[in-house]
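User: Sequence in, structure out. Go.
Assistant: Echoing your sequence, followed by the structure tokens.
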Amino acid sequence: MLGKLSENQIEDLLQQQVTGRIGCHANGITYIVPINYAYKDGCIYGHSAIGKKIKMLRSNPKVCFQVDVIESILEWKSVIGWGHYEEITDREEMLKAMREIIHHLGPMINDTNGHPSHGITDNENDIGSNIDLILYKICLYKKTGRFENPTV
């Protein structure tokens, strides 16, 4: 059976998952890229170094975000949200966002170093001083969710 996820199911899926995809568009090019994220209070929190994604998001901050859980081709859930990209520059907000990301991703880390690469530091206080890390949020203004489940 195909169906729509309720608002609570949409929120649960966004909070439970750690990897989603950002869709952005700038200068006639559409780009979809996976990100690790944390979700809190209606916003996706992520981090990145400067690159194609950040340059495109700076040029056009309108974002589409997608996350899913696929058990099989006949059993899946998917959420799509639309929002606005914003870089976090306030030091205190940066620390809160980084803590949120680390605490959300932490249980998924299997690396012997204890943290993922590409910008997450051993010490949360290293943000902005020892590495050039861009922290951002995407506040979602619209969300939809769908599912397929043969047993429902």
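User: And one key feature?
Assistant: The first helix runs from residue 7 to 16.
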